[in-house]
Amino acid sequence: MKSNKEKIYDFIQMHDTAEKEGGVSTTYIAQALSLQRTNVSSLLNALVEEGRIHKSNGRPVLYSIAGVSRGDEEECFCKMTGWQGSLQHPIQLAKAAVLYPGRSLNILIVGEKGTGKKEFAHLIYEYCLVKQIFSAESPFLQMNCRDYQGSAKDAREKLMGERQSGMLKDAESGILYMDNVQYLDGGLLREIASYSGKPGRKGLLIASCTPDAQPAQEEFQSEFPIVITMPRITERPIEERMEMIQTLFSTEASRVGRELVVKEELMRCLLLYECPENFQQLKRDIKIGCANAYVRELANDRRITLYVSDFEPTIRQGMSRFGQMREEIERLIPENSTFTFDGSRMRVSETETKNIYKELRQKAKQLESEGIEGEDIKMLLSTEVERAFGKYQQKLIHEVRSRKELELIVDEELIDMVEGFLAKVENARNKKIDDAVFFGLCVHMKNVVNGTKTTESMDRLEISEVVTRYKQEYMLSLAFAEEIQEVYGRQLTIDEVILITMFLCYEPPKQTDKGQTVILYAFYGKDIAASIVRTITEITGFNHIFSFEVSHRQSETQIYESLKKCILEIEQKQGVFIVYDSDLVSKVAEEISEETGIMIRLFPAPVTTLGIELARKAMISSNLDAVYRDAMKSVGDFATSHEKYLITLCTTGKGGAEELKTYIERYGHMEDVQIIPLSMSNPKALQEAFRDLMRRGTILCVVGTFDPKLYSIPFCSITEVFTTPKERLPELLRKTESKDYEVDHQEVFHYLAGQFSHVEIKKVETSVEAFLQEVDQKLKHMTQDAQMGLLVHTACCIERLASGETSPENPKRKAILHQYHKEFQQLLRMLRPMEKAFHIIFSDDEVANMLMIIYQI
Amino acid sequence: MERKVLLICAGGMSTGILMKKMEKYAEDKGIELKIDAVGMSAYEDSYKNYDVILLGPQVSYKKEEIAQVTQMPIAVIAAYDYAIGNVDNIMKQVDEIYPQ
Known about the structure:
heterodimer, A: 857 residues, alpha/beta, Rossmann fold, 5-stranded parallel sheet, 4-stranded mixed sheet, 38 helices, 20 strands, elongated, B: 100 residues, 4-stranded parallel sheet, 5 helices
């Protein structure tokens, strides 16, 4: 009776002829023959190993009779991973050799250990059958020349035999595959070459060797003209390696007859570890891992989960390469993905995780319980830092600037704890920690102990990088986290500890408090700038003014280089103010600023440029007014506009910035100001946008979550904006705009002028402004609102009193005068100049009114 | 329907001119508006006859107190609008707290 194996073979053959597409599946065979599925699959594998049947690459895996024409000739080679990729060229060469007119050309396959040379040779054999170069009875004989190392006589006998009966002769109608051909001695190689070169010979010789041992004999080279190089596993695209791994796991799954579950990190390790013996090693290592897991799970008959610890220790090193290949790997093997193999199919599932850190900690624990050492865990959880670090830095808000402010927000015990913690860190590192870190950390810890969400998702690579890079700080932070837990009963997650670590490692931008702003005159023409500088220095005694000569004969590059040199020489850490007369200078200077990082401000004074234009105009026009008009136009082009901007800034997209803009538009009363929402996700683009706006006008201030510290533009935090009462918002946003405010006052007086008829407005303006200034300096600093109110109030008082009206009675007068006796006297003195100027008298009631405004009674 | 607005400032001196301007504005636009200006000390006697209270910026700190006493819609005129008599904006504020 036939064995099951033969039954299966017959069954497949039967179905092959029935033209069942692609072959039959394990399940199909098991059902049809009423055999155990697991048995069937192991028998199938045995048949595949024997080379009698062929196994398809896709899923479900289908089996068919090997060497039988499948209609499509590609089918032969497509059994090998990479037939459309890294093996495309080798396959082309092989086909060319086989189909060479007249007679197939002998082939030398060169490849490292385990690259699949033999498998490839067998595929060439199958291809020959498909192409009917050989008949179905043609043999595929193989010989490993290494077996005959050092015994040329035996080798010779094996190949040539006595009286021409060796393998060469036997393979005359088929293929002789000589593995490790380098072990044959030179003379024998020559003989083989000349033998195969005999006319009328039909058989094909395929030799193989490693790249370092390629036979150099000329005869050999000319008889084996086709050299096919098999790529190393590391030379192949990573996708091909992935495919290999999947195929291998599928094979193992069907061999074991159980589902295999492979988690993401094992997958990644396998994809990345150094695999010097290429595919064969991968195959062997996977086999070993599966065998270990199988033994472990022998008692159960459920699916088998494979762990990194089941495998050879070398594969763990794969994770150390993760950093370099991160993107590709994550694309192929997404975070938290799980691969399930059941022999015919592979499923990929992704576990959703809400809290990546929780997951991470579990993962670390799991790895530990699997007996993986700390060092390896770190490697496995490795890299990814920079991104989060940047993200985090953006989140670091310096809300607090003094200890006093801090105490208002954070309770003292916590402040003390943070202080003690930082003292330890300072001690350990022997380096002072910036106050900003202290304040920032206090506010941060307050949020932490209150349970406010303080961190964005960081990924684990960042975490491990931080841990590796700042081990000491991390250990201290861990201890601190424990303290926090003791006192506040809140357990800190790993990400929170990491964030604390990052705080410690944060270096706030250096305050350049030393240095000097220098001024540079960059003008066209000989000595012009130098003369101006000389004159100014003589008058002012200020020595940090320099000159730069722009020659119209110089190219832009030359100007760039010489101006850069000049700026580098004169720069004294506080930037360079350039007065220029040619657009070229401004363009070049901006580039220099970008390259050198030196702050540069540009101010146009286009005397010579204008002069040149005037001269040209005057040359073609004798009409004075025409020249004048053109000149005015030129000046207009040059002059900086007085456009005012306010920038709203959002850390990520523009969404937040747009919202902020709407809010400010609504409540900020910034009608004269253009509000520009910007995103800081791209610092360079942001810087450019700033520069562009500054060229067109003035940026009043930046509103956002944190100060971009660009061009010393005043910053207003988003918290301030939203916590300030709406009616105070304009004041807050304009607090920096002191100069512009005076302009506003003028408008106020202009308006009042239209209403007043008894006093001269100019006089009112002068005396009221002086009065306000005195009040502000000597009595009390007033808010912008109060100041504006007092201004209008006082001005109106003057008008009314001058018209003969009297102030109404203030019922609280007595109480106020009593309580603010001293201030009352002071205020009276300050009012006296106005009384004199307008011949009026401010009654006590009126003074009480003013006191109410000033002291908000 | 006519809306009645009470302007309050420290002594009733400065709101006077704003009151005049608002009256003229209402007349020009054909809006029915009754406006009076009083000082801080006098509002308690008269507020009941009005619909809306507007405060001069110099007495903005009194907003809570006045709101409690009067229980009426109340707004502080933005300093700049107040100082230059920008009635357009001030009327917007009135519309916001007391829609027609």
